[in-house]
């Protein structure tokens, strides 16, 4: 197996961290974000909620690209890009299903406005106390983290690096949840 260099890990950590930094900035500086969204070049992307939604999808594309790149680069020693461990495949698939169910339920309950910081951007967004909010404080973040752990469990387990990016992303999402209080 190719050993993960500290520089590669730091570059990947920086790229993946941009998403959390962007959301923290929008959360803390909504007035500046709204002003930026009022600029003619940005208005083609819609209202601030729409801009944030497009950033979300862009960041998810980058995140998935980094994850796939990691699996290809560090998975060259095996004949398969997925784990050969049946339990890891099953456990990973289960985590992905649970994570995506949580994310789907968040979008279903809150809608676009609720998910993309409508409460911070001046839109009326009633508090939701239905599932998954009835059992979890940050179900979207927990769903994302569960999906990431599931992906790497299914793709990289039992290789030495299988937990590195999920652990990093767990820290990022925990920080994001903390900073949005």
List the helices and strands and how they pair.
Elements: H1 6-28, H2 30-37, H3 40-43, H4 48-74, H5 86-115, H6 139-156, H7 164-179
Helix pairs in contact: 1-4, 1-7, 5-6, 6-7
In words, what does this structure look like?
This protein is globular. It contains seven helices and no strands. It is mainly alpha-helical. The longest helix has 30 residues, at about 85-115.
Q: Level of helix content?
A: 55-70%
How many strand elements?
0
Average predicted local confidence, pLDDT: 93
Shape verdict: globular
Major beta-sheet overview: none
How much of the residues is beta strand, in percent?
Answer: under 5%
What's the gist of this structure?
With 181 residues, the chain is mainly α. Helices cover 70% and strands 0% of the residues.
Task: Please name the defining characteristics of this protein.
181 residues; mainly alpha; 7 helices
């Amino acid at each position: 197996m190719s050993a993960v260099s500290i520089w590669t890990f730091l570059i990947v950590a920086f790229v993946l961290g941009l998403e959390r930094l962007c959301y923290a900035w929008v959360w803390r500086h909504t007035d500046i974000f709204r002003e930026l969204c009022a600029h003619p070049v940005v208005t083609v992307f819609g209202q601030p909620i729409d801009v944030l939604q497009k950033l979300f999808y862009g960041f998810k594309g980058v995140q998935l690209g980094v994850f796939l790149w990691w699996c290809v680069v560090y998975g060259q020693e095996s004949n398969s890009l997925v784990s050969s461990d049946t339990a890891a495949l099953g456990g990973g698939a289960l985590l992905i299903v649970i994570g995506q169910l949580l994310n789907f339920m968040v979008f279903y309950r809150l809608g676009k406005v609720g998910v993309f910081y409508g409460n911070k951007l001046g839109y009326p967004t009633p508090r939701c106390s239905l599932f998954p909010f009835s059992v979890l404080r940050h179900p979207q973040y927990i769903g994302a983290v569960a999906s990431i752990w599931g992906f790497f469990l299914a793709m990289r387990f039992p290789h030495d690096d299988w937990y590195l990016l999920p652990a990093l992303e767990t820290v990022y999402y925990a920080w994001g949840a903390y900073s949005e209080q």
